[in-house]
C-alpha cells in the first residue's frame, strides 16, 4: 500500500512580486520541504518562476480534499489560486492583492476543516493591499484574528535556538522570544493602545501558549516599559505607574511569573535576560529590532491565541531581491519546522 503523508503544512506563497514564491521553490528544489508540505498559489506563476531561476521542481496541482501521496524529493504540490494578472518580480500590482488574501482564506479554511495541519505564510506587502482598496488591512496577524473570529492574538517572534529549546531562560545571545503588546500601529497611536486590559489579556495569552505549545511548565516573562527609562518614576511618562505596573501586579496575584516594567534599552542584555523565557515589548520596533539583530533570517513569527497553528518568516517581501535567486530561505525553513512541531503537539494534546 502506498504511504500517505499526515495533514499537510499549507504554505501561502505571499506577494507574487516578492520573494515568497521563490523561497518555496528553492526549498522544494533542495528537497528541504518537510514531508507533507503544499504550496498555495498560482501554479503557472510558480512554474515560470522556477524556470526563470533554473530550479528543477516538479509542480503538480491538487485540491485540499485530496490526500497527498508520499512526497518525493523536489516535488511541490500546489493548491491552485489564480492570479488576476501576470506577476513580475519586483513590480507590485494592486490587481493581484485579492489573490494574496484568497490564498490566506484557503489556508484558514483548510486548517479549520482538518485538511491542513498548520499554515505557514510567506511575506505579503501591506501597502499594495491597502492601495487595492482593502483600507482596513494592517497585516497577517490582525487579518487572521478576524478570519478566525477571536478577540485577541499575540505576535511572537523567536530565534531558531529558542524555538527548539525547552530549557528555561536564555542559553545565549542567539536565544530570544519576544512578544508584542501592540503590533502594526503608527508610533503616535501606541501609547493610547497600552491599557490595563490589553496588558492583562496579552500576558495571559502569552503565558498560556508558552505552556501549551512550547512546553514551559512555569514561564517567566519580563515586560518592557513604554517610555525611556521605564518612565523615570513618572518624569518621562506615567504609563508605567498608571497602567503597566497595576496590570503586572494583578497578574502576579494570579500566580503568573511576570516582572517589570524594565527600561527596554537595558532589558535586552544577557544579565537581565538570565532566567527569562520571553519578553513582552510594548510596540513593534521596540522588541523586534533587537530580535532581528540577534537572529535575522533564522527566526520565525508565531501567532498565539488562534484556533490553528500559524507560523511565518521573520522578513518582508524583499522586492529588490525578487526574481534573482539570491534570497535566503532559512527563515521559511525555520517556520516550516516549527509549524510541524507545533501541529504535532496540538494533535497529541487534543487526543
UniProtKB/TrEMBL annotation:
Compartment annotation: Cytoplasm
UniProt binding sites for a divalent metal cation: 184, 229, 284
GO molecular function terms noted in the UniProt entry: 4-hydroxythreonine-4-phosphate dehydrogenase activity
EC number: 1.1.1.262
Pfam families, sorted: PdxA (PF04166)
Textual note on the cofactor: Binds 1 divalent metal cation per subunit. Can use ions such as Zn(2+), Mg(2+) or Co(2+).
InterPro entries (alphabetical): PdxA (IPR037510), PdxA_fam (IPR005255)
Chief location of this protein within or outside the cell: cytoplasm
Record key words, sorted: Cobalt, Cytoplasm, Magnesium, Metal-binding, NAD, NADP, Oxidoreductase, Pyridoxine biosynthesis, Zinc
Enzymatic class: oxidoreductase
Spans through the membrane: none
CC cofactor: Zn(2+); Mg(2+); Co(2+)
Organism domain of life: Bacteria
Pathway(s) where this gene product acts: Cofactor biosynthesis; pyridoxine 5'-phosphate biosynthesis; pyridoxine 5'-phosphate from D-erythrose 4-phosphate: step 4/5
Binding residues annotated for substrate, in chain numbering: 140-141, 292, 301, 310
Misc: The active site is located at the dimer interface.
Function: Catalyzes the NAD(P)-dependent oxidation of 4-(phosphooxy)-L-threonine (HTP) into 2-amino-3-oxo-4-(phosphooxy)butyric acid which spontaneously decarboxylates to form 3-amino-2-oxopropyl phosphate (AHAP).
Family per record: Belongs to the PdxA family.
Subunit: Homodimer.
Official protein name in the record: 4-hydroxythreonine-4-phosphate dehydrogenase
Biological classification of the source: Bacteria, Pseudomonadati, Pseudomonadota, Gammaproteobacteria, Oceanospirillales
